[in-house]
Structures are given as C-alpha cells and as structure tokens.
Amino acid sequence: MSEQQQPGTLYVISAPSGAGKTSLVRALVESTPDIAVSVSHTTRPPREGETDGVDYHFTDVATFESMVAEGAFLEHAKVFDNYYGTSRNAALDGVSQGRDVILEIDWQGARQVRESIPQAVGIFILPPSRTVLAERLQGRGQDSAEVIQRRMEAAQAEMAHFEEFDYLVVNDDFDTALSELCSVVTARRLRGEAQRWRHASLLEELLATGP
Amino acid sequence: MSEQQQPGTLYVISAPSGAGKTSLVRALVESTPDIAVSVSHTTRPPREGETDGVDYHFTDVATFESMVAEGAFLEHAKVFDNYYGTSRNAALDGVSQGRDVILEIDWQGARQVRESIPQAVGIFILPPSRTVLAERLQGRGQDSAEVIQRRMEAAQAEMAHFEEFDYLVVNDDFDTALSELCSVVTARRLRGEAQRWRHASLLEELLATGP
C-alpha cells in the first residue's frame, strides 16, 4: 500500500457584509497549506488591476448562459445586470486532487452547493455585536442613512440563514477567529477516513507482524 | 433568550502504550478551559502519592460489583485481579454542565462507551514509526526481549482498532500533535448547535428588527 490521496474538503464560507469574511479567508489561505479559494465566473467587466483566471474567470453573457444550460455551475446568480457563478470544475478539481477549496458565496449560493455536494462543510461568520456591524456598514461616512439602513437589512437577511451552516465563527478578535477557522480545517483533516489515506504506509508498518 | 448551556462533548482517547497519550492529554487539559479527564473507579489499592477522587475513585470489590449490577458503569474491565471502570456519573455530570470530558481508556472500553453514548467522539493516537514505538516499549532496558515482544504485541492489538475512532492523531512532534488535539476540541465547540446556545444573546441582537 503506498501513500494515497483522499479527496479534500469543499468549504462554503458565508457572512453578512461587515463580518470581516474576506480578510479572514485571505489570512486562512496564507497560513494553511493545500487550501485555496475557488475562482468564480462573472460577466461583469474586469476592473483596474483584476486578472482573468485569478480574480475571476471573466466571460461573456452567451458563454455564461450556455454554461448554465450545460449544468456547469454548482451555483450561480444574477446580481443587478451581471452573472456570477461557481463552476463545478473550479470547485471540485482541487478537491479531487486532495486539496481543500473554499467558496465565498452567500446563503443562496450555499444552499445550491449543498444540494449538489451534501458533504460540503458550511461555515458562517458573524460580527461580534450590532454596534460593530453598524459601524462597519457605515463605510467612510459618505452614505445616506437610508443606504446604511438598506445595508443593515441586507446583512440581517444574510444572517437569518446562519442555522444552515455547520460551523459558526464570531469575528470579535481577528486572531481568535482566524485560529478558529484554522481549527475547523485542521480537525477535518484529522478525521479517520482522511488520515487512513495520508498515513497508509505508517499504519501498514505499525500493524505488520514479525520483528 | 439568555445565554444558555449546551452539553459538552465526551471524548474517548485511546492509544497503544508508547504513543504518548498521557502526556498529550495532560497538556491538552492544561492548555484548554472547560475540559477535564474523568476520574475512573478501581479496586486496586492506592499507590504512594495517589489521592482518592483525584487519581481514582478507590472502592472495594463489593461496592464495585454492586455498581456493575446497577449499570452504574459506562465501561469496565478486570485487569489481572483488579477492576477498573468509568462510572456514568463521572463521565456525564461534567458533560451535562457544558464541559468537555475525556475518557482515557482502551479500545474495548471505547467500544462499550460508544454503545451507550453514540455521540461520544473517539480520538486515536499513533506513534510516528515502528522504530520509535519499539524504543519507547523497551523502557529502561532492564526487561527481557520476551517481555518487550509481548508489549509490542499488545500495542499492535490496540492499534488494530484505530478505524473505530473518529479522529487519528500521529504523535511525531509533540507540539504539533497537541495543537491537533486542541483543534479537534475547538472545532467541536464551533459547531452550529453549540454556538447557537453560546451566542444566543448575540444572535438575538444581530437579528432584531428596528434601529
């Protein structure tokens, strides 16, 4: 028996705006080997400094719609005039090669993914208080009360779905929340079925009879 | 809704002699709040320096046997002339009060516990190689080859059951193995059903409508 490869884990990480998800996920990926964020497809034009295949897979509407028709997306949505989606290949190629892959999507995308990939692991990130959330949603103080109120309502609509996720992380202290995210990833990798593959040679050696 | 208490987790940690389980568990308990090792019952006499209720609950044979008859033990075994067992109360009082409790028992005890408490979480600790295991089983070099060989066979009989455990930790580097144990405990505490109780007030505040 040689060292073999067990599939990685697909993580779906969701949060309301203002919870600090993007910074936490970036730090998680930087501090952990063999984990990456899946690159989404979008039909919106690239912004200054964005690179195709890195920030997004930029595609035109006809291509996106034909991919939808082919069932190429694990989840997709139209936001204003633009499509966004996670292709099955972008999400699962890494997983099948033994790496962990993160999807940063909202609760609706998370629900779509769960339907296709029930073994996906959901993590929901919460802000530490309503006051902190409200501060973060104010942005640079240049927006009207009405705009900020709409952001709060959107955040609450997202948070209303926290029970659909396997793990809940409260981002009060950044380093604590990061360490908690890392613990979830580490613990998944320690599950017996993953470790049996990873340590197949060791197990064979330890259990061999004879001197 | 006030902050409420969700039950803790019952951990069953097993390992062959020479895997370093006792040191790892001691370090885990020292570095983690709200987790303790359950105190077993035994009929063997206390040794120098052992305290009743701390190292063991020391009982006589008649008491032990009547506890067995009452179903007071989650698991018990006779080793040579002495009984050892984990009482249901010792294991579950802490858990019902929201703390995590560790049972350090062998695969047979683990199997008995799993039958009564299927939600118990099993962790098996492995040595990093056969060579290291053999060295550790040699002790101080005062034992016969036959005695050492018998220890190796006992270790292998224990390790043959690693697949019955949820998590597998290889104790190569002590600090890494400790950090992995801590990750399993942390990740369990981050599960949605635990966090919903722990952060009931926060969730209520975040989801409340109105300003």
Automatic annotation (TrEMBL), chains A, B:
Q: Per its UniProt record, what InterPro entries does this chain match?
A: GK/Ca_channel_bsu, Guanylate_kin-like_dom, Guanylate_kinase, Guanylate_kinase_CS, P-loop_NTPase
Q: Which Gene3D superfamilies match?
A: Guanylate Kinase phosphate binding domain, P-loop containing nucleotide triphosphate hydrolases
Q: Establish whether keyword NAD is in the entry.
A: no
Q: What is its EC class?
A: transferase
The UniProt entry's GO CC annotations, sorted and at most eight, read: cytosol
Instruction: Tell me which residues bind ATP.
Output: A15, P16, S17, G18, A19, G20, K21, T22
KW Nucleotide-binding (keyword) present: yes
Instruction: Give the family from UniProt.
Output: Belongs to the guanylate kinase family.
Report the principal subcellular site.
Answer: cytoplasm
Pfam families reported for this sequence: Guanylate_kin
| GO MF annotations in UniProt | ATP binding; GMP kinase activity
- Record organism: Thiohalospira halophila DSM 15071
User: What does this protein's UniProt record list under function?
Assistant: Essential for recycling GMP and indirectly, cGMP.
**Where is it localised?**
Cytoplasm
Catalytic reaction annotation: GMP + ATP = GDP + ADP
The record's gene field reads: gmk
**What CDD domains would the database entry show?**
GMPK
SMART domains (alphabetical): GuKc
Q: Which UniProt keywords apply?
A: ATP-binding, Cytoplasm, Kinase, Nucleotide-binding, Transferase
This enzyme's EC code(s): 2.7.4.8
The name this protein carries in UniProt is: Guanylate kinase
Q: Which residues form the Guanylate kinase-like domain?
A: 8-186
